[in-house]
Amino acid sequence: MSSLLNICRFNSTAGGTTDWTYSSAVTGYQSPAAANAINGATYSYRAESNDLSQWEVGFGVYNSGAGVFARTTVLFNSLGTTAKINFSTVPQVAIVALAEDLTTPAIIRNFVDGLTLSAAGGTATFGVAAGVAANSTNIDFLTLSSAISKGLSANWTVGNNGGALDTGSAAANTWYHVFLIKRPDTRVVDVMVSLSATSPTLPTNYTLFRRIGSMKTDGSSQWIAFRQFGDEFMWVTPIKDVDSGGFPASDTPTAVNSVPSGHTAVKGFFNVTAFTATAAQLQLYVRSGFMTSQAPAFGSSPGITLFDNSQTGQGVTENIEMWCDAGPLVVLRPNVAATTIRVITRGWLDRRGRDN
After folding, report:
1. CA torsion through residues 189, 193, 197, 203, sign
2. Is 101 helix (H, G, I), strand (E, B) or coil?
3. Is residue 92 a contact partner of residue 52, using CB atoms and an 8 Å limit?
């Protein structure tokens, strides 16, 4: 789908087969700048000679710095072909809406639908279901028309069963971020993975992208099995991230490595167990790093996440949800020293850029 402009029509600087460089607005119409044309966006055009004997319809990417609309793809022309017309005179160029542009609604900010990730585990292959998402800058939709399978063991190549890695080689025990990518000049949409959650190394001519999830490898550089349900991702086998008997009665920022790292905070789903060998009432406060440092308090702020009043060292366990700072980290604070705490990660919530 191409972006749209209101009443934009201009004279090009030249005819021939060169790209359309803005010269002046046609009387009664707006220039690309006045119509708020967006740099890097794709637009559909119709170019025509004054006597209409030569004309061409196509689409291409706009370069605002040079004032140029690329003639990347020709759909129709006055010769009945899909080649660029060699205009004998300077044509007028209008930015138009084609039938192909009206099959998809206007860009909805940060929209994502479908594109469910899947990884069975024990393999470097993963799948992405069909779906659509607005790109990271909300200038175009990226539509994956059918499900695709990609592999981590090879660098990116276009198409189903191709490689997925943007650069380097597959690493063990590492989070990768999955991106939908688009090449505006041909409108091809594909999938790749990157260590970066915000700036993947894109293939040549692919300029649009959107992160649609994150996945982690095991010690053999194969995917750890998970299931995705909308914005929720659940490990097939929950993973123990913390098991220590030395927690002091003070704030301890603690890594939970089975929750994605490197991007905006995600919410982790945890099973937390705490116990102490001392004959004391046990209180544990679990918080996000951005929250105020406070000791656990019964009946007042900040409250208590886990509580054991048996005073026999039996301990207590609870399923909790907690937003994790980039890292990712949670802060654990028991009320007595030498408390044993275990954290098992069951999954995470990832809004996948909806709130950016």
Report:
1. negative
2. helix
3. no
CATH number at residue 335: 2.60.120
Q: How confident is the model at residue 190 (pLDDT cuts 50, 70, 90)?
A: very high
Residues listed for the chain: 356
Q: How far apart are CA 295 and CA 304, in angstroms?
A: 9
pTM of the full structure: 0.74
Tell me the C-alpha distance between 213 and 180, whole Å.
10
The yes-or-no verdict on residue 311 having pLDDT over 60 is yes
Strands (E), 67-198: 68-69, 73-77, 92-96, 112-114, 117-118, 125-128, 131-134, 141-144, 148-155, 162-165, 175-183, 188-194
With a pLDDT cut of 90, the percent of the chain lying above it is 71
- Does residue 262 have a pLDDT over 90? no
User: Do residues 280 and 336 lie in contact, with contact meaning Cβ atoms separated by under 8 Å?
Assistant: yes
CATH number assigned to the domain comprising residue 204: 2.80.20
